[in-house]
Amino acid sequence: MRSLTVRRETWPIKGSFRISRGAKTEAEVVVVEIASGDSVGRGECVPYARYGETVASVIAQIEDVRTDIAKEMTHQELQRRLPPGAARNALDCALIDWQAKATRTPAHVLLNLPPPTPVRTAFTLTLDSPEAMAAAAAEAAKSFGLLKLKIAGGDDLARVEAVRHAAPHARLIADANEGWSFDDFVRLAPELARLGVALLEQPLKADEDEVLETGKTPLPLCADESCHTHADLPRLRGRYSHINVKLDKAGGLTEAVALIREATTQGLRYMVGCMVATSLAMAPATLLTADADFVDLDGPLLLKRDRQDALNYQRDLILPPSPALWG
After folding, report:
1. Is 24 a catalytic residue?
2. Domain boundaries 119-318, corresponding CATH code
């Protein structure tokens, strides 16, 4: 019989983290532990208000399957029991970690994935004034070759110009988090292309992005809020070149693997992304990076501190997680 433990944790952020929808100074996460004998599997998720989630609602979803977990529910069966989202992610990752520990089989072997290798991550610049973002870019570019800028319309051209001037050799991703209007897109996308932005992420609201089918875009576009699971892929054709795969949106590593495999067959490329969270949330996502065009797993670097047995970040290089952390 397996036991289930679920708890809420709060991790302070360095300064504040601001995107088009608002700012926060803490990362609130939910941690799941599944134990049997000497084997303990862990998973972490970030409830996200944009998707109608709260810490309380996510914990309630997890509690709803407590009996099923005790009765040896597998991570495959979990896909049918809970919808995609943060709760299923924490449980899915914990079940995979538990199975890896119990069978002494690495998680990547269980999932038929390549073994994790060191991977380079982007570093995210929080939404701020052009001057503040330029200063942050100049400092980050000392260690990171790929910078991700949070933007929101308005002064975005000044922001990107300032960052490009401060970090002339860095690759840039611009992430609007649904913060642009279509007029913003028409006005700003060509300017971002001129400034060498490699990828523009989710410029329009997810339920308004059909206008992206109207013609060619001046730079590659990535679906984030518009893409959660493989069921979303048909509506993305002709709108985006890339998708941002996040475990909390997909509802865990199991669906994220299926999403990537299906997207690849449809000619879509992908980024592996994250929420602001600890190394426990990032570790499972490192298994997805082998063929990713972009990796954005810098969540722990935005925190004031990380958990024990954290991922080893060497400048922009993430080393594979230790079994003590996950997998």
Report:
1. no
2. 3.20.20.120
Domain boundaries, the chain: 3-104, 119-318
Max CA pair span of the chain: 60
Apex 99 CA angle, 96 and 102, nearest 5: 150
CATH of domain 3-104: 3.30.390.10
Task: For 31-69, write each residue's pLDDT tens digit.
Answer: 999 999 999 999 999 999 999 999 999 999 999 999 999
71 is catalytic: no
Which one from 205, 246, 249, 304 is the annotated catalytic residue?
246
pLDDT at residue 70, rounded to an integer: 87
Q: From the candidates 24, 150, 216, 304, which is the catalytic residue?
A: 150
**Cα separation, 182 vs 160, whole angstroms:** 18
Its pTM stands at 0.95
Q: Which residues contact 52 (CB under 8 A, 6 or more apart)?
A: none
Q: Determine the angle formed by the axes of helices 86-103 and 253-265, rounding to 10 degrees.
A: 100
Closest by CA to 245, choosing from 219, 279, 266, 268, is: 268
